[in-house]
UniProtKB/TrEMBL annotation:
Family: Belongs to the 'phage' integrase family.
Keywords recorded for this protein, A-Z: DNA recombination, DNA-binding
One GO MF term: DNA binding
Domain of life, per lineage: Bacteria
Keyword Ribonucleoprotein in record: no
PROSITE patterns reported in the protein's UniProt record: TYR_RECOMBINASE
GO terms for biological process, alphabetical: DNA integration; DNA recombination
PANTHER family reported in the protein's UniProt record: PHAGE INTEGRASE-RELATED (PTHR30349), PROPHAGE INTEGRASE INTD-RELATED (PTHR30349:SF64)
Protein name, entry field: Tyrosine-type recombinase/integrase
Amino acid sequence: MENTTYRVRVHKTEVRKNVAGKVTSYRVQWSTDGKPWKRTFQKSAQADAYRSKLLTAAREGEPFSLATGEPVKWSRVERPEMTWYDFACKFADFKWKAASAKYRQDIARALTAATPAMLTSGKGKPSDLHLRTAMRRWGFNTKQRAEASEETAEVLAWLAKNTRSVSALTEAATVRALLDAATSRLNGKTAATSTIRRHKTILQNAMDYAVELKLLDSNPIKALKWKPPRVTYEVDRRSVVNHAQARRLLAAVQAQQPSGKRLVAFFAVIYYAGLRPEEVVRLGEDNITLPELARNPESGELEEPADGWGELRFAGAAPFAGREWTDDGSLREERALKHRAEGETRIVPCPPALVRILRAHLAEFGTDPGGRLFTGVRGGELAGITCRRVWAKAREHALTEKEAQSPLAKRIYDLRHACVSTWLNAGVPATQVAEWAGHSVDVLLRIYAKCIVGQDEAAKRRIADALKDLDSPV
């Protein structure tokens, strides 16, 4: 048992007196593993009784706590017992209402990854795949649990009977095994850094909840010497496309059938206005302000103004989550803008190139009955898999073989990085870029630090100028 010792010495009681020689108190003194302890009593009988209890515990071989100095059994209280699986379900239910659909999935994944470390028996054990599926899709899903099939219910029943008690997490070795399982891939290798930190945070929150339920005295993860790897939030400069590459990619999107032509504007909004994909799918015609067409004095026809800027004004996003994780059963969850309060809007300028693309999109495809710009070919929700497939094929056709094998624009989200990098390199103040991108200034500069071109050379020139007078031979 960790944090305990059997090396105990009980010393003679110290009689404490004031300056007049009158006895004021009695101090019991003892040590555990060399660490001194003391406790003061007003009466001699109280001190003698306490000292006698210490001596008896030491003689009977009771372990003493290094944290309190007293016998371990003195601090033991009867606690409710709960299996890990039952507790994990209770924690998922506790977090469900306030959590976003995406975070609900994160909780289920973290608990699913950690649970194998808490299994007590292999007898009658279902396959690992069946266990993971049952936990992630049903057991740790508050909405779905009661709807599990008979086969899945049997798997969950086996889990309920074959996981250790939460009280087992008072042992550091068990806590370490739990964390190791939660931060590893199925092949035993270490998970991605972001996954490690996310799962560790979720489990730490779960342990706080166990303390609240009085299943544990304290959070065992906080006491563990376990340091997660560092996470880098900086954008990889190699993933950022230049304007020529972006235009080739958009042209390659347009050439694809049947979805490409209606997706050009979708990708263009990310590249030219820096919106997140979940913000773009929610855009409606009422979120767009386009400049008035100008009449050509020679032909008399209406044309796009030469330098006509528009504006995007929006107040929500709709990240994909899956029907089983949203409250209303929709594929996407309607939410406020990231890092902003409910109802708060963001305004982003719409450059002339994007104005032309959006006007052409509206002219050809219009909007759905709800006013949304982007839908599937047959109407309905724009599927994320469709966007990813079209983008992957566009990279194959628009980029060189070497570029296609690199991180260049590998994810759709990299178009947003390209947009924000363009704004910063064009000299737009960081405060304005942060407002358009929906970031705080410090986060913006931390993420895009390596994408600001020319600052290092400018800094070198300033240093060289400052040292010119010192360049004479010594």
